Amino acid sequence: MFITMKIVLALISIIVLTFLYLTITDYKPDLEIKISNNDNAEILNKNTFDIITWNIGYAGLGEDMDFFYDGGTKVRTSKERTIENLKAITDFIKEKDLDFFIFQEVDINAKRTYNINELDTLKKYKTDKYFYAPNYRVKYVPVPLLEAMGSVESGLVTVSKADAKSSARFAFPGNYTWPKSLFLPDRCFTVNRYPIKNGKELLIINTHNSAFDDGSLKKQQLNTLKEFIENEYKNGNYVVLGGDWNQNPPNMNNNKFGGYTENTSFILTSIDTDFFSKDWQFAFDNTNPTNRALTAPYEKGETSVTILDFFLLSPNIDIIEVETFHLNFKNSDHNPVHLKFKLK
Fold first, then answer.
1. Would you kindly state where each structural domain of the chain is located, as residue ranges?
2. What class has domain 2-343?
């Protein structure tokens, strides 16, 4: 009995000390963090541009994977498969001669991806400008108990041919309650400003909105984005906002892809049709999905799929073309989305 009590007390002490450590080391970023600044950035001397948004799933969520937090059982794929996924992702990217890329879930140092610095890997394949902002920085994720996810350092990356006049990270308001907030991402969006020849700026905004909430955090985040982009448009600037919204765009018929099987962690919602001013334009490819469920490994025609990755453009921009590259989720649980646009 005495030995059992000692074991119980030891376990309680370990749990208490773990939560104390995680609370003390919890990442608490400022509302705005400057990433870079260059007052002498070159003026963009054209008005037509190409951009791709892609949540690369940290090169760990290929077709073979399910994920414990999404109703599956696995924590990570093998190191060999992670390297294979990352190579396929970089092979795809290096073939695209585009003005901008915006990526989500790029691991810098995480147990789930065997501490591979994926940003450094991306930099080997393109000699462009890179802008990184962390949105998931946790010393230790203790779940699942028998195979803890461990440490995570991951974030958003914007890549551009031209240097930005400035780049900044903006924290989204609200968060999960303690202790859940200790283990999940601190959501944010990044803003890169590029001077253009009429004296205004082109803003490339990279966002990764909340996934595991009842919709209340998403609504707060949308309110923040709306206020920010409308102020920029009033100032005469051009706004391209893209990324993984973790919700459907307005006027999308999700039954087009056979419906979406939800799980207890991810509740699929849609952006209200009248949330943004009607002259703002959503750009997405309604013929191809951008995301698949992680309740089980991917099976074409069986796995639930939907559209979570898309763009929102200010009224002073024309959409020329938008296309989702359907890669059958071989190396990521998301597909890349390409947009060609023109400044009016």
1. 2-343
2. alpha beta
